[in-house]
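Something for you to look into today, if you have time. What I am after is a single protein written out in full by you. I want to see for myself how the chain folds. Could you add the entry underneath, on a fresh line?
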Amino acid sequence: MKSLLRPLALASLIANIGLIVTGGAVRLTGSGLGCPTWPKCTDASYTTTAAMGAHGVIEFGNRLLNFVLIAVALGCVIEAFRNGPRRRSLIVLSLGVVAYIPVQAVVGGLTVLSKLNPWVVGLHFLASIGLVTVAYALWRRTAEGDRAPRLLVPGPLRQLGALTAIAGAAVIAVGVVVTGSGPHAGDEHAKRTGLDPAAVAQAHADLVFLLIGLSVALVLALRATHAPATAVRAAAVLVVVELGQGLIGFVQYFTHLPVVLVGVHLLGAALVWIAILNVLWSMRSRDTEATPEPGHPAPQLARAAG
């Protein structure tokens, strides 16, 4: 019987990205306290009530999506154990996704219990990015073997890729602070960080320029060293995604943060991170034990690449 693990892993990744978008919709519609407590929706009910109106439906609907995530993640675990020969890496990653979902849900509960404290809300988003990372790793590993990874690019380029990833993480983290300092708090009575929105937005923009500069440098360096086409293409896709995300960010800022653009920008943040992960994955391979190209490290030195 054909394994369903890879399509299930892809479904898990998409669902986790979708949860980021729906979570943003909760905030952008002012429904962050549609269910004013957690884990119940109200003190007397686990579900929304008619008296809570549309905000309650939106917030409770977002909570229900966690059960979809768990169902798909459990499907991945079952497939990882069912398929033979069993692969430890796939079992560990699939179990990691299952274990991470309740943690992410608890952080979401804390955002409600803290009355949408902006720092806790930001932590919830970062936890979602972490969950996307594990889900992505599971999906990519389903298409790989279990041999030691073979590095495809020289060490300096891998270091540039790592630096690009660090810059990307910084962009996302500071973007969270920008969100916590501006409007769209999720509820009209929710607190803000108290930081100057213009100042943190400028810091965020500076980091975006740094990230794009590093990404362009990575594309040029990969091309100059005749890196595999997959690595060059992955870096080029990253630049395109970053430029699109940056354009949306500037437009939303100068149009006073319309909710639709803010929602699209939220999705873009997840896509930028996935594009970064794609670049890192493209720099090594587990498919073959072929002799590395001149200037590339030997296979036995590649174990540290993961």
Confidence is low (pLDDT under 50) at residues 288-306. Residues 53-82 form the longest helix (30 residues).
